[in-house]
Write a structure and sequence with these properties.
Elements (H helix, E strand, L loop, with lengths): L6 H4 L3 E2 H8 L4 H16 L7 H12 L5 H6 L8 H17 L6 E4 L4 E5 L2 E5 L3 E5 L4 E7 L7 H13 L1 H4 L4 E6 L4 E3 L7 H21 L2
Parallel strand pairs: 1-4, 6-7
Antiparallel strand pairs: 2-5, 3-4, 5-6, 7-8
Helix pairs in contact: 2-7, 4-6
Length: 215
């Protein structure tokens, strides 16, 4: 007896990237986007073009090389990905240098966590963490898009990371890095977490409803 193939995609689920891209959309584009996520999950197709880039960035942090691996990575990927990598390297190098002396920063291991927004599971998966000589730590999520992260994307990403930081990287601060511009985004001091939580709960309920009706 074979298991029904429709069971997996019928269960609503989102990654941090998928959910934060969803909250950034408005009107009918929300339904189109969730429908696309559901179909992608059903087909089990997915490819991360940034994998080698993230490895190079982590290597520069881990080995205190200040951008040596980033400078070489565009030459190591397939020709189709070189324009993307060439567009990402300058900003990433700027961000890397903003951390201070390479010897004063170490790579920190982060762990994935599963957030529940009502009945919607959201996978919280920062790419890596950094730890400074003074003991401070940051959990890093990278934003690769051509457009800068919107206020909604930034707020949702940082809030959900902070919400589960005990599992992700204890005592660390969540940081969203706009790779192309080399800029770090942190939670604004005047944000009220309970309001963000209420907003995201509503977004999650709508996500579930759209997912369930998307055929």
């Amino acid at each position: 007896m074979t298991a029904p193939t429709s069971a997996a995609p019928a269960t609503p689920y989102a990654t941090l990237l998928g959910f934060t891209r969803y909250v950034d959309r408005t009107g009918p584009t929300k339904a189109i986007f969730v429908g696309g996520l559901r179909k992608q999950r059903a087909s089990r197709h997915g490819f991360n073009p940034h994998g080698q880039f993230v490895k190079a960035l982590k290597a520069d942090v881990a080995f205190h090389t200040g951008g040596t691996h980033l400078a070489q990575v565009a030459d190591l990927v397939k020709p189709r990905w070189r324009p993307l990598y060439e567009a990402l390297v300058p900003g990433a190098t700027t961000w890397l240098r903003s951390l201070g002396e390479p010897a004063g920063v170490d790579l920190a291991q982060t762990r994935d966590a599963l957030a529940m927004l009502g009945d919607l599971p959201v996978k919280i998966n920062p790419q890596f963490g950094v730890r400074y000589a003074d003991g401070r730590a940051e959990a890093i999520r990278l934003h690769f898009d051509e457009a800068p992260p919107s206020e909604e994307t930034t707020l949702a990403t940082l809030h959900l990371m902070a919400r589960h930081m005990d599992a992700v990287l204890p005592h660390a601060e969540p940081v969203l890095v706009d790779v192309r511009r080399g800029e770090s985004h942190r939670m604004p001091a005047d944000v009220r977490p309970e309001q963000v939580e209420q907003w995201l709960a509503g977004e999650a309920a709508a996500f579930r409803a759209i997912w369930s009706t998307a055929a």
